[in-house]
Structures are given as C-alpha cells and as structure tokens.
Amino acid sequence: VQLQASGGGLVQAGGSLRLSCAASGRLFSSYVMGWFRQAPGKQREFVAAIDWSGGSTYYADSVKGRFTISRDNAKNTVYLQMNSLKPEDTAVYHCAAGAVRLYFIAREYAYWGQGTLVTVSS
Fold first, then answer.
1. What is the DSSP letter of 20?
2. What is the pLDDT, as a whole number, of residue 29?
3. Sign of CA pseudo-dihedral 58, 59, 65, 66
4. In this structure, is the dihedral angle defined by the CA atoms of residues 45, 122, 41 and 97, taken in order, positive or negative?
5. Exposed site from 54, 56, 61, 122, fewest CB < 10 Å?
C-alpha cells in the first residue's frame, strides 16, 4: 500500500482545512486508517483513526469535537476535516494504514505517507 497525503497549507486560527490521503492497493478497504502529526521538536502523536468500514472512529482528546475522520473505500481515500484550527495544531500530518489493534500506537501501522504540512497562524 502506498499513501499520498495532501491538503495541507497555511490557515488562520479558527479556520478549516481538509486533508486527503489517497491509497494504492486493493487491500485499502481492509485496513485501519490513521492520522498522526509531528510538530517541530516534538514526538509524533496520534490524531484520529477509522476502522475498515468507517463505522468506528477514534480521536485524540486534543482534537475531539473539532476534527472528523472519514473514508471512501470506493475511492481508496481517507479524509481529515479540521475545523476551529488552533496554532498548536501546526504540524506535519501523516496518514497511515495497517491491520492494527491499538489504533493510537504509531508502530502498529505498517504503511505511511510522506506527510503534509499544516500551519495555523494566530
């Protein structure tokens, strides 16, 4: 599985962005998809995840109520809608895929995209 993230950019605090992650490979629909982020000088952290069917979603407390993860298996794409953005959301956002059990653990994911930069100005 190859993953290509896009949709990052510069936005003012309170604004919105929608990230996309396009996947190649016929096993996409069987994998958990996750979004992680890494800010400068900080460790990579879990943001959100969605199960293979889209029926279950999981969020970090820091983004709950502001971010929404979704997927379209027909298009092999997962999305991250980010609303009410804050300067502390500034980071490189990575999408990941895998047959994971612990969705919030980065090493559980076998496949990673290259990342897309989100910058939120105050």
1. E
2. 83
3. negative
4. positive
5. 61
The token pair at 112 is 């990673």
Q: 74 Cβ partners below 8 Å, 6+ apart?
A: none
Residue 5 CB-density burial (10 A; 0-12 exposed, 13-18 middle, 19+ buried): buried
pLDDT of residue 117: 98
pLDDT at 27: 81
Are residues 23 and 2 in contact, defined by beta-carbon separation less than 8 angstroms? Answer: yes
3-state secondary structure of 100: coil
Alpha-carbon distance of 26 to 20, in angstroms, equals: 18
Question: Which residue ranges in the chain fall short of pLDDT 70?
Answer: none
In angstroms, rounded to a whole number, what is the distance separating the alpha carbons of residues 8 and 120?
A: 10
pLDDT at residue 26 in the model: 74
